[in-house]
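Predicting holo structure, adenosine-5'-diphosphate bound.
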Amino acid sequence: MLALQGITVRYGPLVAVSGVDLSVGDGEVVALLGPSGCGKSTLLRTVAGLVPASSGGVTWDGADLAGVPVHRRGFGLVFQDGQLFPHRDVAGNVAFGLRMQRVDREARRKRVDELLELVGLAGYQRRRVTELSGGEQQRVALARALAPRPRLVLLDEPLSALDRALREQLAVDLARLLREAGATALVVTHDHDEAFTLADRVAVMRAGRIVQVGPPAEVWRSPADVETARFLGCGKVLAAERAARLVGVASRVGLRASALRVDPGGALAGDVLERVHRRDHVRLLVSVDGDEFEAVAPVAAAPEVGERVRLAVDPDGIAVIG
Ligand code: ADP
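Done. Tokens:
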């Protein structure tokens, strides 16, 4: 088990990470989620041993890692851009850590085959990595990291260099691969969909601190504070009294775009101010009760600007804050 206690990291006068406590249990996948610049990568690099902590400690199964260099921690690293060795073929890349461990040739070959099978690249052994697609390169990077059976895998924005459609598919694949490998992992991402797809628990970071830790469903349903709710897609925040009147929840809530749906039987009424066609729905801006709200409508039955509509509340679009 990985445990971080009171980790603070300074770059000169800048405090990049501040008093972070966190644990990652055996076989658990934890995501560090937060906006760019909040200190996620710095924290990951401190765990890896690449950046020293100014104070606090990193332990594995209770043993302090302070004096242990990067290559002796038994951790596997995967970065955003893969960082493969361009002059080695796929097998040569995947076998790298095994060669460092002086694993013999036959065992190496077997393990490389196993890993390529796992990441869906069986038969790619002799391919040049420079001729692979971005998604394939990241699979090779993951296979390389997993090959020496690391006790912890550290992934820093492993999918963010890929285009969106591929990223969504690969996030699902990566979640499955980590489970199949039984990996213990800490993954950095700024994308909440990715964090929720990958992780057993999500640690939300802001300005160097962890502000909330919990399973995806819990963080999604009840963000710790208003800023977290906004980061998780709640464009609008209602005070308790107003929330009770409009959406029937007697506490402060955040509303996502999907919280209000056009529905002839809905309890709210409003006037459509704007409409924008999205992938599989129409997004509206509706004036309700003297205030503006986002709402969604099916493409086939979307109202026009200026129309009076009725809106129903979808509980999945509502986050109870605090
Ligand atoms: P994130 O991964 O959440 O985007 P980082 O950990 O990369 O955040 O950065 C946290 C803060 O530390 C930022 O303000 C960033 O500019 C700063 N920072 C990161 N790396 C260095 C460095 N090597 N030297 C000085 N400042 C750094």
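Residues 270 and 291 are 9 Å apart (CA to CA).
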